[in-house]
Amino acid sequence: MSISATKLARQTIRELLELGICDFVISPGSRNAPLSIAVYEAAERGLADLHVRIDERGAGFYALGVAKVIQQYVVVICTSGTAVANYHPSALEAFHSDVNVLYLTADRPARLRNTGANQTTLQPGLLAPVESFDTATPLDLSEILIGGPVHINLQLDEPLIEKDAADWLSGFTLKEVLADSISKETLEVNPSGVLIVGHDRAGFSAEQINEFADILDWPVIAEDPLSIQSSLPHASIFLADSGIREALHADEVIIIGRTTLSRSINSFISEATRKFVIDPRVEYIDTDREADRVFSTIPHVIKHATPQAWDQLWIDASSSAESLFEAGLPWSEQLALRVITSNIPEDCALFVGSSRPIRDIEACSLPQDCISVFANRGLAGIDGNIATALGIASRFERGYAILGDITFLHDISALVNTTSDNLTIFLIDNNGGGIFSTLPQASTPGFESLFGTPHNLDLERVVSGFSVSVQKAKSEADLVQAISARHEGLHVVIVEVPTRNENALELSELYQRVAKAVRIGINLA
Q1: For residue 443, which of 490, 390, 505 has the smallest C-alpha distance?
Q2: 24 near 48, Cβ under 8 Å?
Q3: Looking at the chain, which residues constitute the CATH 3.40.50.970 domain(s)?
């Protein structure tokens, strides 16, 4: 049975609203006009929050950012053709992060496919591996929106706009959504173990992880040390030393989520006697994940008392490393990130960009109270980082982001979208891809052209060109001042740091100094 574009759009938007979904991110277009108008009408009634982003790539990441915060579906709507393809990067991130984003794409009728019709391609399945539904009639969305990203491709036939003044939102009621009950499994563990928490925490809240860590009472290593109060700082540095890893060998490790960063942590995991994984994604994404036991939810733990000597050994290792940081670091990327994370206020959001910043926070920062930390760790890409941070900031009184210069430039088009949300971006400027200077390809011929990629741009002028307020920070004092100023709206702080080569050398020396201090601290020297 055929249905007009206006009626199909209204029925779809109404059902989403009745499911409690109220955030819609729209990019302008013709084919999606019925959907856009329906969302606008719902927003005028106070039933929807409407966000407009002019490019679909950024819109997808903005929706991803909002969804990370609210833990509910966010709908992103676009027209047909290449607009849909621009969703793919964020769809991949949403899939591997298991974030609730609904990609609602407008399409021409199926009869026009493969006929040479304008702006018509094979949109169903274009966002794979996200599951796709192709339809010209209403769907039962309650059966589809059960968790994780979804793609619904709506075939909208002409005429796209009708003069229909019907009150299609009358009698609006929220549907009751029943939560699934999950029975906990039981895990009996040995005393000498270590809890390792991946950056995305497998979708669990920081509160859930902190509660589990308290029950387990093991030493804790966290890729996001800011959020996990019991985490031991600097583990990714001192575990790079094979002798220290051997001395701290664990009978058992429990890994929550994925470990996406440090080779040292992954080496430590591989050397453990037994391994347990906790991650809901093992049921439908990471189905080949291997461990001695794999859990899709946090199990009930039966354990023996942790030996004091074992606990103290880890405390001594971490404390010995921290003593070097307390003694002071030279001005560097590592010091800059430590200063930022130590000074941003409570009850704010912090988005950490991929590449060097997220590694430096893991290695150098201390746990903080009441900061909500986010990152795109599904595929650990630099795509869409500004847009994601903007989406996250929209749900907080104040947001911060730390991005490398290449990451920032990669998503600079996101700055064209005006915002009244308070987001301060710390832009780490080392004139290129600093992460590669710390990797094996640093010594290969053609390194600067292929990996270093210096942009040689005056970033202050670039940012100002978007009418965004900007300042520079060249020292610890500059950074502290920039944070305390609490700028309104979108603000960029360009953090000028030593060259990439200088930073790579300083980082190598820091690892050596930490290893020496920890060896002494645990009587291994």
Answers
A1: 505
A2: yes
A3: 5-155, 333-497
Q: Is 483 helix (H, G, I), strand (E, B) or coil?
A: helix
User: What kind of fold does domain 5-155 have according to CATH?
Assistant: Rossmann fold (3.40.50)
Query: What is the structure's pLDDT at 180?
Result: 52
User: Is 407:355 a contact under the CB 8 Å cutoff?
Assistant: yes
CB–CB of 78/30 below 8 Å? no
Question: What pLDDT was estimated at residue 431?
Answer: 86
| Distance between first and last Cα of the chain | 79
CA pair distance 422, 468, nearest whole angstrom:
12
* Helix segments in 136-217, DSSP class H: 206-216
Residue 1 has pLDDT above 70, yes or no: no
How far from the centroid of its chain's Cα atoms is residue 6's Cα? 35
| CA atoms of 27 and 388, how far apart (whole Å) | 16
Q: Are 382 and 409 in contact (CB under 8 A)?
A: no
DSSP bridge partners of 470:
492
Instruction: Confirm if 119 and 108 have CB atoms less than 8 A apart.
Output: yes
CB 426 within 8 A of CB 400: yes
**Domain 333-497 annotated CATH 3.30.70.890:** no
Taking all residues of the chain, what is their mean pLDDT, rounded to a whole number? Answer: 93
CATH number for the domain formed by residue range(s) 186-307: 3.40.50.1220
Residue with tokens 């621009």: 86
Residue ranges of the chain assigned to CATH 3.40.50.1220: 186-307
Residues 147 and 94: their CA atoms lie apart, in Å, by: 11
Amino acid at position 481, single letter: Q
Structure tokens at 336: 């800059």
